[in-house]
Amino acid sequence: MSHHTEQVVAPAAYGLMAEFPGEHELLVAAQRARAEGYTRMDAFSPVPVEGLSDVLGHRRSRVPLMVLCGGIIGGTTGFLLQYWTMVKAYPLNIGGKPLNSWPQWIPVTFEMTILFASLFAVVGMFLLNGLPLPYHPVFNVNSFARASQDAFFLCIEAKDPRFDPVGTRRFLESLHPIEVSDVAE
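Request: output the structure for the sequence above.
Response:
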């Protein structure tokens, strides 16, 4: 006789999320969480909250550096492509001008700079933001549907070194939220 026992595997925890009644309460909660030592957290709000990104520890974007690199690569590519074409691959002496007459290459070099910079901007934004992201674990919380209307949320991720399911829940409840919800992966 064989006994089959099914084990129920609980979904992996993404973290804990607390809902607050307003933007001021969300900002205060984020400040307290930062002071408590939590570093892996995110906030969701229907309106911009002044100072919230600083409290959450969001660093400056690397997109401008990527755009600069793309522009330099594009300009260099445009210039070298024209140089190679006009001087090495297919030299034509037009009107007695030297083969390396760089002023005529400025428009193409400029356009290649703009093209590469804009492509690097779009690709960099997508990569650094983790896009496309059609699904996020916070969507599992029923009340999160109001995040774009009138609800304010603070989510502390389970990846945080200080995260403890019981201790973190107790901490979030001490902030007097409307509710604290488990966020499953």
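The radius of gyration is 27 Å.
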